[in-house]
Design goal:
Length: 300
C-alpha cells in the first residue's frame, strides 16, 4: 500500500451514518470517543486499537466494533499500515434496526471489540462503495442489512450503567464546567478547588467516569464541537478560536488525530455536493451498480 488517502463524508440517503474510506501508512489516533457506533472493516494491513485497557489487532477480514462513548486509540500494526472502511452509525438507527430484526432487549451493543468476519467486512466495504458511487437505494439497503447482521452475530445488550458514586457526581460536575468554559477552561487545581475536592481525587474520578483525564477529554470534546461548527459553515480559523484551540494549526493537528482527515477536507465534504461520486468511483458505476444491487437483494 503506497501513500495515504482518506475520505470522511455523509451521503444524503444515509443521514444517520458517517462514512470513512481510508488508507494509512503512518497514523496514530489519539484517545477519543464517538457519539455513534464504530463499525470498521479492515481490507489490508493491520490496525491496532486499545479499548477498555486491552489492545486488539484486526487484519484483513477483521472488524473493529466500538460502542458509543467508549474511549479508544489506534495505530498501524506494521510498516505497511492499513486500509479500511468504516460506518459511524447513530445510536437511534442501531436501536431501531435491533428492535426490528433481533430479540435484543435494552440498549444494543458489541461485547467483542475485534472479531474475524470476512463476509461482514466485505458488506461494510460494499456500503461505502455504493454510497461513494451515488447508489442511494443500494447503500441504504446494504447498510441496514449489514447492521442487522452484525447485531445478530456479535451484538448483545450493553450492561447497565453503574450506580452513581460521589466521585462520579464530581466528575460529571467537572465535565459540565469544561463544556461551559471550553474556550477558556480552568486549570486542574482551579477546577478541583471550585468543586471542593483535591486534584488527584478529581483525576481519579474523571478517569473512572469517562475513561480519560480531563485534558484529554477536553481535546476530544473540542474536536467534536469543531465538527458541528464546520458542518454549519464556520471557517476553520474561527472554529479553532471558538472551541479553544490556540490557532488553526492546533485544530488541524488534533482534528486529524481524532477524525482522520483535516478540518478543511471534512468541511468541504459536508458543504460541497453531497453524494457526488469521485471520478474514480464514477468510472466503475455501471457494472459495479449492478453487482451492488444484487448483493443488497441477497442480504434482505
Amino acid at each position: 500500500m503506497e501513500g495515504e488517502s482518506a475520505r470522511h463524508w455523509r451521503h444524503p440517503a444515509l443521514p444517520e451514518v458517517d462514512l470513512l474510506r481510508a488508507r494509512y501508512s503512518r497514523k496514530t489516533f489519539a484517545r477519543h470517543t464517538h457519539d455513534s457506533y464504530v463499525l470498521g472493516a479492515i481490507a489490508e494491513g493491520v490496525e491496532v486499537f486499545t479499548l477498555r485497557g486491552t489492545q486488539h489487532r484486526a487484519g484483513p477480514g477483521g472488524l473493529a466494533l466500538i460502542n458509543p462513548g467508549d474511549p479508544h486509540s489506534a495505530h498501524e500494526g506494521g510498516p505497511e499500515g492499513w486500509r479500511y472502511h468504516v460506518l459511524y452509525a447513530a445510536p437511534g438507527l442501531v436501536a431501531r434496526i435491533a428492535a426490528e430484526t433481533t430479540s435484543l432487549r435494552g440498549t444494543p451493543g458489541f461485547a467483542a471489540a475485534a472479531v474475524d468476519d470476512p463476509q461482514s467486512a466485505a458488506l461494510i466495504a460494499h456500503v461505502v462503495g455504493a454510497a461513494e458511487a451515488g447508489q442511494a437505494l443500494a447503500a441504504d439497503s446494504l447498510m441496514r442489512s449489514t447492521v442487522a447482521r452484525l447485531l445478530r452475530l456479535h451484538g448483545g445488550p450493553l450492561p447497565a450503567r453503574a450506580v452513581r458514586t460521589a466521585g462520579a457526581r464530581t466528575a460529571e460536575r467537572a465535565r459540565a464546567v469544561l463544556e461551559e468554559r471550553m474556550a477558556r477552561p480552568p486549570t486542574l487545581k482551579a477546577l478541583a478547588d471550585e468543586l471542593g475536592t483535591s486534584t488527584f481525587a478529581l483525576l481519579r474520578a474523571y478517569r473512572e467516569r469517562y475513561g480519560m483525564p480531563p485534558h484529554a477529554w477536553l481535546t476530544d470534546a473540542r474536536v467534536r464541537r469543531a465538527m458541528a461548527l464546520l458542518e454549519a459553515g464556520t471557517p476553520p480559523a474561527e472554529t479553532a478560536a471558538a472551541v479553544g484551540f490556540t490557532d488553526q494549526s492546533h485544530l488541524n493537528r488534533h482534528f486529524g488525530r481524532i477524525v482522520g482527515v483535516p478540518p478543511g477536507a471534512y468541511q468541504r465534504e459536508r458543504l460541497g455536493a453531497p453524494g457526488t461520486p469521485s471520478l474514480r468511483a464514477g468510472r466503475a458505476a455501471g457494472p459495479e451498480r449492478v453487482r451492488t444491487e444484487q448483493r443488497a437483494a441477497r442480504c434482505r
